[in-house]
């Protein structure tokens, strides 16, 4: 199953969600590939591959996606992590949208790369960590996956961002086919009134969608410490009550595969 983790609003918790859901899927026995499509490389950093981000000798998605003759080269980009396989980002990805601007089927290049490289035959789940904007790279992730997991802050500023994301998803659907919203993961949920109101709003909006669920991640220092250690919360050396929530998200995603 392929899943794009997307919300164009910065600070929504996209990468934290990607890494810990990937870790939960690994805990449940799945082979997982994480693709860091964000030019800022937060997932690359959060998995401990900072040195690869600015390695000028390493090929990256920046080199492969614009080149139609390299659609079978996914394997050359994959590195191994103790929990998951990873396609790291690279500093050159900052110019990737410009490189893709004038190529044919520019929104379909990631889909072509995954198809040509038989990603679905190798990994049970492919998670794509998207950039914090609605551009060509995010479009590539949504077209390639057809499924989105939406992280968000439990703040009123999330409402406009989610409304814009829905418009973008419907636009992509009209051109490329159905896109399913699988779940919303609310991050760093506090105990204030605004957070409570937003959790109600999330549930009203998302739980009306078929099989879409809302999950609540409370703010925990252990999540940041796991990030600093280059692992998910499951491989970190301190326990967190949020592990069970990420495992619930992973189980929820498994239900779509079983169908």
Automatic annotation (TrEMBL):
Organism lineage: Archaea, Methanobacteriati, Methanobacteriota, Stenosarchaea group, Halobacteria
Residue ranges of every copy of the AAA domain listed in the record: 3-174
Highest taxon of source: Archaea
InterPro entries for the chain: AAA_dom (IPR025669), DNA_Partitioning_ATPase (IPR050678), P-loop_NTPase (IPR027417)
Protein name: Chromosome partitioning protein ParA
């Amino acid at each position: 199953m392929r899943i794009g983790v997307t919300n164009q609003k910065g600070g929504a918790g996209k990468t934290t969600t990607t890494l810990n859901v990937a870790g939960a899927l690994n805990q449940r026995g799945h082979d997982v590939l994480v693709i860091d499509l964000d030019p800022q490389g937060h997932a690359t950093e959060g998995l401990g591959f900072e040195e690869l981000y600015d390695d000028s000798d390493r090929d990256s998605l920046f080199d492969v996606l614009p080149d139609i003759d390299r659609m079978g080269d996914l394997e050359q980009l994959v590195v191994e992590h103790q929990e998951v396989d990873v396609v790291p980002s690279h500093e050159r990805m900052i110019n990737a949208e410009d490189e893709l601007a004038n190529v044919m089927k520019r929104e379909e290049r990631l889909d072509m790369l995954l198809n040509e490289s038989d990603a679905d035959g190798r990994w049970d789940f492919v998670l794509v960590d998207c950039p914090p904007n609605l551009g060509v790279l995010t479009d590539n992730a949504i077209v390639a996956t057809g499924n989105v997991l939406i992280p968000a802050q439990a703040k009123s500023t999330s409402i406009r961002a989610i409304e814009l994301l829905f418009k973008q998803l419907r636009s992509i659907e009209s051109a490329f086919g159905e896109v399913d919203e699988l779940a919303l993961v609310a991050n760093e949920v506090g105990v204030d009134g605004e957070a409570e109101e937003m959790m109600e709003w999330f549930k009203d909006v998302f739980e009306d969608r078929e099989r879409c669920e809302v999950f609540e991640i409370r703010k925990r220092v252990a999540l940041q410490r796991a990030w600093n250690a280059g692992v998910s919360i499951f491989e970190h050396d301190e326990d967190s009550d949020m592990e069970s929530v990420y495992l619930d998200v992973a189980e929820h995603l498994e239900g779509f595969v079983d169908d």
